[in-house]
Amino acid sequence: MQGKKQFEEKLFTTVQLSKRISASNYYRKVKQQIKFDFIYPKTKLLYSKRGKESLDPVVFFKLCLIRKHENWSSDVKLMNWVKIRLDLLYFLDYNLDDKLPASATISHTRSHFPPALFNEIFEQIESMIAEKEIQ
Question: pTM for the full model?
Answer without folding.
Answer: 0.92
